[in-house]
Specification:
- Helices cover about 35% and strands about 20% of the residues.
- It is α+β, with helices and mostly antiparallel strands.
- Strands 2-3-1-5-4 form a 5-stranded antiparallel β-sheet.
Length: about 180
């Protein structure tokens, strides 16, 4: 069992139950899945870029990603229906907990000019989205072998029903939120 998962079961779930005044242990929010997505718009002209993104996402997540196809044609972007336009991977279970631990303790602190995450990036249902502009902050990626810096989107899906509960859960894990958002 992962370190953060163990901490959740031993300490965090109990603290959340008391603080949020849940009547049932099943109400306590937890992590459901983490989705990592990389747009591959340049794959329209460069097929090698798609293979590079798949390899990069496999190293980062430890799991083979899925290539996403365009649902409809967009002529201004030279995209036809069915073309490969993105790569994503959904992590659950142990791999999700390992990635979450790595994200909090290694990736975000290594991010250049990192001042914290905006707590307004919740979706209304307790799920949090963040963007990472430089994929070389992951320890699995060798910056010397990178042909292009790529950005990726990470969505942390929780079982909470609202943003307040989702934020309380992520706060307990030490998620680096900006303390005063209005001072920016």
């Amino acid at each position: 069992m992962n370190r953060l998962q163990e901490e959740y079961k031993k300490r965090i779930a109990g603290e959340l139950m008391k603080e949020q005044e849940y009547s049932n242990a099943m109400e306590v929010p937890t992590l459901k899945k983490i989705i990592i997505n990389v747009g591959a718009g340049e794959a329209v002209e460069n097929k090698a870029a798609l293979e590079e993104i798949v390899e990069m996402l496999t190293k980062i997540s430890g799991q083979k990603p899925v290539v996403n196809k365009a649902k409809k044609a967009i002529s201004s972007f030279k995209i036809r229906e069915g073309m490969d336009v993105g790569v994503s991977v959904t992590l659950r279970g142990d791999r999700m907990w390992q990635f979450f631990d790595k994200l909090i303790n290694i990736v975000l602190p290594r991010t250049k000019d990192f001042r914290g995450l905006n707590p307004k990036s919740f979706d209304g249902a307790g799920n949090f989205s963040l963007g990472i502009e430089d994929h070389t902050v992951f320890v699995e990626i060798d910056p010397n072998n990178v042909t292009k810096i790529r950005s990726l989107q990470v969505v942390i899906v929780t079982t909470s029903v609202n943003d307040k509960d989702g934020k309380a859960l992520l706060d307990k894990f030490g998620f680096p939120f900006i303390k005063n958002v209005n001072s920016r």
